[in-house]
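haha ok so turns out i had the wrong file open the whole time. this is the CORRECT one, sorry everyone. sequence first:
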Amino acid sequence: MAAVPAVPAVPAAPVISVISAISATGLTKSYADKAVLKGVDLEIPAGSVFALLGPNGAGKTTTVQILSTLIPADGGTARVAGHDVERSAAGVRKAIGVTGQFSAVDNLLTAEENLLLMADLNHLRRREGRRRAEELMRRFDLTEASRQAVATFSGGMRRKLDLAMTLVGDPEVIFLDEPTTGLDPRSRRTMWEIIRSLVADQGVTIFLTTQYLEEADQLADRIAVLDGGRIVAEGTAEELKRIVPGGWIRLRFADTARLATAAALFEHAKADTEALRLDIPGDNSVLTVKAVLDALDNASVPAESLVVETADLDDVFLQLTGEGAR
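then structure:
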């Protein structure tokens, strides 16, 4: 009998693991008798944008302060860039950059001097510090204003310089605590482009807190909603939007008479007489829209316009936080 050739061993499939840039388990923090954080868990992959949403006083800034080693937690554990925030605080600080709600630049110095000062604080050699400052000024479109006192800068320019200073130390993880507060829409969108490029080009991890829900929707790979010291929901923007059922079919009419006639056709519709608008709750399917149009047609009530709107992060935020949650 002929020998059966040995079957070569099939190599095991490689195990693909997602490296966490930030992980936290059971974080708690209280001030006097007020519990600010009541057991916060986080798991944020490296090279992603994570947004933490929540109303004022929810604990967003406290979370950032704990993870960036500015204050200790009362309980729980956390690791940032592989370092324990309590036992290896120096390692965490070396790996991160922090841009707070308020600009940390020195108004009496020029943009260039601010960046060179930050290079000195990061113990860069003089030549390397100057090279890094020039590179960041080009990247943030600050070269022409590099010799001007920061006191003359617009809000958008100051925030760009603030973020540029954060990048002098080439951090792995950047905490942006409400980075676009007070900026006009154009400056805010410029900042968004900068944040996207940091992740796409350098693989930086961004931890973003914001009250601008559109900002989280535009930037974040994952979003968590913090309320009352707890994470009440987490997921992608689309996953969170599915928490709120249905949406609205919004119709506008030429006059109040037609609006009133149309409103009588739909049991749960909401009429706005000033805007001449009728909001009809629905699942936004083609069949539902067709049914609405057929009902209007049968009643001989033409609409001036029709807009179908799905739930957005504003709806999610209002439902999950504050009085909406209760």
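The chain has two domains: 20-241, 247-310.
again sry for the mixup
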